[in-house]
């Protein structure tokens, strides 16, 4: 779930894309209600998810390093993109 | 508020036109309009291609993407240097868009399938993305469409083979007039050659405002329809002290501006700067400064952006009188971690040197964060010290970072917007607890003096009690004027009521100075009054010896301070305290200063009340 107050905005999306881009596996993010899904390596696609605060997301990865990719992306999202330190 | 004056302009053709806006960066300038399109849409035409031309068109698109990425990386580096990494992040997002496989595949696919030119394909693909964003309900996420448009423009410009707004195109006397100065456009301009900025949109925290303040360019925003009325090459005068812009200024207006420019101008070339206290190696004099009759006066720097750091040494500031720590927050409101703050405060302490730096606790809440539900009256709402006490974890992280950084340099902590002594006591308790905690964790801490911002009338009225509970006062004149006179300085409908020289304001300052003297604690005055020579004379007369201002204002102020004396300034101040109205005070100050120190305040250059047609 997206917990940072401003949702999956440009900076958060940039972090997500950089993180996913570091892995070989294909990483996809889908809204839990299945209304939209995105390639986690494409910032335009991620922004089009329009994931505001509180949006439930499902992350999937497929490829050689899928487990590592999955845990890295999930950790980033659940940390609130490092914006929750206050 | 726009008024058309009866004067004719100096070219004798167009009547003078005046606008009132929000001044977001100090200074004044006279120059010629350079209109900058914020949305400089390239005209895009559809061209059908032969089958044989398609692959060449795809190559042309790829080359344009490479060129656009190269330009953007350059801009990103410049923006990081000027604004800090936090504000430059938007270029990171733009860069990722230019590397986006989806964008590339969609455009190339469209060129191949539709056999159309790359420009048309870029426009179609971008419009499709924008249509999706337009459906988004979340306001903040929807605003990202501006980023997509900016990126699309960049690709179209790269395809056209031109390199956009080149710095070489700027004439020496350019005053930028725009609806809004988009970050990418601003970063491409050689802003060192820009005399001033005037924009229709924008507020105190807009990109334009932040850039202008960081680089010391006078700027007035919120002018509504100025862009439509101005033409490139028109004569224009910008007064970012009063928030006024004059298009086609009359000869009288021009003369007034030029005279005040001569008075405030700070030479920028090195040879002329030496006598202003800036040495050739860029290190300003930090030497002691005295009034003509002997008292020592400290001129310190207000600092917010990394771009301002250089000025602290360059202009010889005696340390940092006010560090606005809000800059550490990203402008989207995320809270910086303790370690990140620690690093920043150590740097600030190093920069300030032996004279020290005062870190103001986050002045947040109200209109400065958008994450909470909107308050009906944010200026009087949950902000500054109230916000910090409510969000105690935010305050504790900041307190810990300051205490730790103080082990590496001379730092003080200022509590913003104190309205009741209990706030000081609660904050002190938190500070004591965190110091103990840090010690038990094995961290080194340094001594940190605690000051109270005096900017609310209730703090003025109990200043004598308050003075016994803090180590120093920091007098914020902007908010003090606003709260004492109940005038929102951002609201141009009541701009005429914002009078720094109102007798009520001067009496408040007098009370605060007396309370501080009785308790033997220092007072530093920050805010616009401290940076304006005529006001500073009155402050000196009221006993102020410690002023903090934008660093670039220091050389001018140093000359004035060295040339005036406490005795006669005190006489002027005492007369001011007996005046009944702000008009009386202003008239008195004008007359007395022109008589006492005509070389600093020649009569014709003293600020005159701005005529506003109601």
Keywords:
heterodimer; A: 86 residues; alpha+beta; Histidine-containing Protein, Chain: A; 3 helices; 35% helix; B: 614 residues; alpha/beta; Glucose Oxidase, domain 1; TIM Barrel; nine-stranded mixed beta sheet; 25 helices; disordered N terminus
Provide a descriptive summary of the structure in words:
The complex is a heterodimer of chains A (86) and B (614). Chain A has 86 residues and is α+β, with helices and mostly antiparallel strands. Chain A contains three helices and three strands; from the N terminus they run αββαβα. In chain A, helix 1 runs antiparallel to helix 3. With 614 residues, chain B is of the alpha/beta class. Chain B folds into three domains: 133 residues, 3-Layer(bba) Sandwich (Glucose Oxidase, domain 1), CATH 3.50.30; 110 residues, Enzyme I, Chain A, domain 2; 325 residues, TIM Barrel, CATH 3.20.20.60. Chain B has 25 helices and 18 strands. Chain B has a nine-stranded mixed β-sheet. An eight-stranded parallel beta barrel of chain B has the order 11-12-13-14-15-16-17-18, surrounded by six helices. The relative contact order of chain B is 0.10. The interface between A and B is medium-sized, with 28 and 35 residues.
For the biggest sheet of chain B, the summary is: 9 strands, mixed
| CATH topology (fold) name of the largest domain in chain B | TIM Barrel
Mean pLDDT of chain A: 83
The number of distinct structural domains of chain B comes to: 3
What's the main sheet of chain A like?
Answer: 3 strands, antiparallel
Structural class determined from secondary elements of chain B: alpha/beta
Radius of gyration of chain B: 26 Å
What is the second-level CATH architecture of chain A?
2-Layer Sandwich
Shape call of chain B? globular
- Low-confidence region ranges of chain B: 1-12, 163-168, 263-282, 367-372, 605-614
CATH superfamily of chain A: HPr-like
Number of strands of chain A: 3
Q: First CA to last CA of chain A: what distance?
A: 19 Å
Order of strands in the sheet with most strands of chain A: 2-1-3
CATH class term of the largest domain in chain B: Alpha Beta
Cα-atom radius of gyration of chain A: 12 Å
Question: How much of the residues of chain A is beta strand, in percent?
Answer: 15-25%
Number of helices of chain B: 25
Supply the CATH architecture of the largest domain in chain B: Alpha-Beta Barrel
Helix content of chain B: 40-55%
